[in-house]
């Protein structure tokens, strides 16, 4: 008779922490500090879910590749000769060498730098010198990784059986994303920022704008103050109502143009949680720039009206995106260690936009370069405070931290479902 194996001390510790989480409150300190929890995150969150990692314009042509590092894992994403997107573990099947060390580049074949074993762009082993005559090449192709493109947004899943609800997200989001034609864009800029904090602090900071007015003067130029959450009272009722009227008028105008705008929110309801909504921008209402005018005179797709607000798209566990009439910004959060996180920001413009004529990189990136650096300081101070020994989880504001609560809900639900 087989008896169930006793749970490890590590598993019991994780389960106990998950069970103690109080809804509407933050997570306890070990979730941000513990190496055991970090290993659980890498196995059960980043190792089992759809993770946003890149945009198609980064690999526009056959042979183009990017590498993605998450913790100790490295993934190679390449555009094969048939123009399909393929993903592999960035590890040679001979002696385990990393195949591609650069962040991006162009390949003919994938050649291991150690012993020159070579793979074609479908991952098939095609050359291995000094091996026996009966050597079976077919057993040593690159290990594939599940990969999907959502209209130009590239997601990977490292698990054997990826969540099946990606297709539901794709169906819901296609009408929202398709008009912006990301696949017809080019990368105008990409900036990597390393934050000395746990990845969940980075994501929690993104999921609320409680801090925005006090710390993000460049970003809030284009944001309606009452549009990202506010405690209603007698003094702000008129302003809240005024924003609601602007929102309804804007949505009606955009919907009439074939641009879906209504909120969809499944952040803590699905395995592949996501949220989207098109929101009006303040002042000129055109783009997230310092003067709220377009950063690129060459609008995306066939747009003729620059004032299309900002379509926001959030995915669990690691991304957010802003789609505007003239450019698209994507953010990918990738854990490095328990206390170090990479935030990769990518700006895309129309593929025919000319730098120095239609746009300048400095103007295009000014708002989010400033905002990201401000956020870096905030999350690093949070990590220091959480590690101090005096931290205990505090309550979230129900008026302005609802998306933060949903991130924590999703994380606890997913880890609880997968930790065995």
Automatic annotation (TrEMBL):
PROSITE patterns: RIESKE
A GO MF term: dioxygenase activity
Domain Rieske: from-to ranges: 50-156
Acetylation recorded as keyword: no
Gene3D superfamilies in the cross-refs: Naphthalene 1,2-dioxygenase Alpha Subunit, Chain A, domain 1, Rieske [2Fe-2S] iron-sulphur domain
Cofactor: Fe cation
SUPFAM superfamilies assigned: Bet v1-like, ISP domain
Positions in coiled-coil regions: none
UniProt KW keywords: 2Fe-2S, Dioxygenase, Iron, Iron-sulfur, Metal-binding, Oxidoreductase
UniProt xrefs under InterPro entries: Rieske_2Fe-2S, Rieske_2Fe-2S_sf, Ring_hydroxy_dOase_asu_C_dom, Rng_hydr_dOase-A
Keyword Oxidoreductase: yes
Family label: Belongs to the bacterial ring-hydroxylating dioxygenase alpha subunit family.
Official protein name in the record: Aromatic ring-hydroxylating dioxygenase subunit alpha
Source species of the chain: Verminephrobacter aporrectodeae subsp. tuberculatae
Taxonomic placement: Bacteria, Pseudomonadati, Pseudomonadota, Betaproteobacteria, Burkholderiales
